[in-house]
Design a protein that fits this description.
The protein is α+β, with helices and mostly antiparallel strands. Helices cover about 35% and strands about 20% of the residues. It starts with 5 loop residues before the first strand and ends with a strand.
Amino acid sequence: MPGPLTWQGEDFRRVRGPDGHIKEVTIDMNEILAKEYRGKTIENVHFGAIAVVDSKGKLIYSFGDPYFVTYLRSAAKPFQAIPLLTSGVAEEFGLTTKEIAIVCGSHNGQKKHTEVVKSILKKIGLSEKHLQCGAHIPHYYTINNIPPPKGAKFRPIHNNCSGKHAGILALSVYHGWNTKNYLSPKHPAEKIILDAVSEICEYPKRKIGIGIDGCGVPVFAMPLYNMALGFSRLITHQGKDERISKAYEIITSAMSRYPEMVSGFGRFDLALAKVGKGNILSKAGVALYCLGLFDRGWGLAAKVIDGARVAIGPTICESLRQLGVVKKADMKRFGEYAFPVIRNHKGDKVGFIQPTFRLKRRK
């Protein structure tokens, strides 16, 4: 059914302001990524957009608006790690491949993760007290529906972003910058990170929207097209010079070698790494997902615009199937990431989510 969707008497409108960012959003019925069923009745629909781009900047496939502007959130972490390699920080402090991987990741907060973050902090002469990411219940428990130990107290080191924060602190220590205000967008570390993000995604700094993430650091808003382009450039190691290209290569190698540091048990990133057998490099955002396909040199960025995180798994899995990256028979290996089940409080299956979109080949 074409045309704008009316919700409680109001049409959503997609209107761009003078800075190019979306001020209002129009959702067309043809932009439905997935439908959520309870029994045989559709209870919810999830809208979104997808962009698939090659390393030369050609838009190969799309769905919805491939230029929809939104935040990278944690999908930016591989880009935020670039200055560690280009500035000589990793070499100076002897950061290992595993440590670089956790800087790029959103870890589960398990001991094997926190020990790696502690190792980075020790190498740069700092400690946990310098982390300003705040604390939350580790993803190991929340994602896997495991009750935390009774009386457990979690610290910033358990935050899924503590690896990224340790990386920013390493950058600051190396250059002699203040480590107390590293969260500020005006901090020199954040400025060179913004430069790196702008460069790899080929999106002007002045157009990048800056917000504040859940962990306190600046986050970057740009079109899905540019996010996909950035991941394509990352996996094909296409920097403007040999030093930057080498940084891209080190980051992709670290993430591919230690995918359990990028996420962890029960996480979609890790499932993609296993099913892809080294062909897929991915990083989750929030109701957003970015990945690169090594064998094709393509980057993909997808956003569930209504914010339903449960719809991102089937969206990515179905995209990979339509692109021919995984066969239909192999989709079951993704389990409920590809075929989410709606359950009641007793654990009974009462519904499911089904992708309904079709990627459009661009000429």
